[in-house]
Amino acid sequence: MPRVTLDLPGCKSASQRALILAALAEGESVVSGLSSGEDSKFLLSALGALGVPICHEGGIQVRISGGGGPRTAAVDALSLGEGGSTLRFLVPMLAAAPQDLQLHVAEGLRNRPQQALVDALALQGASLTPTEHGFHLQAEASAIPETMQIPVDLSSQFFSGFLMASGRQAQRWNLGMEPVSRGYLDMTVTMLQQFRGAEVLQIQPLVWKQAVGYGTGQNYAVPSDASAVVFFAVAAILLQQEIGISQAWGAAHPDRAVLQFLEKHQLLRVEGSTLIPLGLEHKTSSFGEVPVFDLQDSPDSGPALAVLASQLPHGIRFVHPERLRFKESNRLDGMQRLAAILGGEMTEQGETLLIQPGTSSETSGPFDSSNDHRLAMSAGIASLRYPKLEIGERSCVAKSFPDFWNQLARLQ
Hints:
The protein is of the alpha/beta class. It is built from 13 helices and 20 strands. The chain has a four-stranded mixed β-sheet with strand order 1-14-16-15. Helix 1 (about 10-25) runs parallel beside helix 2 and helix 3 (about 85-95) runs parallel beside helix 6 (about 155-165).
């Protein structure tokens, strides 16, 4: 089959960080290649409501005039949608200025764990209390304590939010434990260094030090979304078809670990921006064992890899799966249902999961995506091999990849 070249959105993770850093920096920033997903749109809207001057230029490029630090909102409520990063990145910045704000969020986000954020804000003299429609934030603009411990055992987003919001004084962070999703923290630090030229050093395994200042405006080009690449890497293997990506994806994104995993086990080769399948039948691993994938740093890839695992002769074993219960939906439940509908089986073995083929059958669905964009996209990839699969709540992909179904159709 001839190679198909697909267009992917800008990286959602980089977009969210760039918008926060540009709003806090002194002077003008131009952020291009922004994610077209709903999370970035909600964050842009919230920053505009805060009084941050934003000029939209051609849809995925914005010009932002930062104020050199946090600012008090001129409104009494902000709508943040269902984005975990939108809430967790924005709230520390809001709490660094006097605020009395209602934060309206989707029900799914209200139900996700936020206690680590609440506890950290309390050290700053701010409160974040649940309401019927989201949260109520009250802050007196107290400085972030110069030495502060942030919980990092459930999500790296809490720590990333405080890293970006700090700048009023030099900072020393005590983590207390090894952070999950370390790659996302590395992304935050890399972008902090670009916007601020700031010293952000890990001086001991669990201690970080950060210099004073909010930095100056930058020109920042958001790379293509590496998370989206994962879905089409699986598609390339299932279809045994080369797939090209029109714009380079972020080499620093944690989901690069998925491509390295697929290459290690001789399922895929990556040449530049081209995904080249190396065969599916009879493949196990380069060591003749069931492949093992660690979800610690790449949790969003779990549903896509569940589709692949149900089609591999020996499946895939997943370690550190527990965090997937606390995403936009319980993704472990979604992975089990998706594997089952594809004729696969998921079994828990201690603190690991094994997904492998079960009884093969022609699949007609339907599959309930639980309004979770990652589950819907994974089911979409599965439908390339099982075209009768019906997928519910397809529109939820707008959270990160509004054009997903159009791009997928180019492979059908």
